[in-house]
Write a structure and sequence with these properties.
95 residues, mainly alpha, 6 helices
Length: 95
């Protein structure tokens, strides 16, 4: 599990409140953790927050200026960390 999501410091939450990509990324990880803990597959909450996180991140990555905020990098890092936790998914993601 992502240590930032579990043991986040006070400053982290100020960014979560104002950045939708970071907001949806953390809620996706929390929902995914819940789903995996209780044997739920593809809950509506998990799919919604995951979809929103990826949509917002993709929109930002498509920006022609190519300048990314710390919040966008943090949101991507949280999602990458989720993939690294499951080596099978990580290999699929890289291909």
């Amino acid at each position: 599990m992502n240590s930032v999501a579990v043991n986040a410091e006070r400053d982290f939450f100020s960014f979560v409140k104002v950045d939708p990509a970071l907001f949806h990324s953390i809620l996706y990880l929390v929902a995914l953790h819940f789903d995996l803990s209780y044997g739920v597959q593809d809950s509506a909450v998990c799919l919604y927050h995951g979809g929103e996180a990826f949509r917002i991140i993709n929109e930002r990555l498509a920006d022609i200026n190519g300048v990314f905020s710390d919040q966008t990098i943090g949101a991507v890092a949280m999602l990458v960390n989720k993939e690294v936790d499951n080596p099978d998914n990580f290999l699929i993601t890289l291909t």
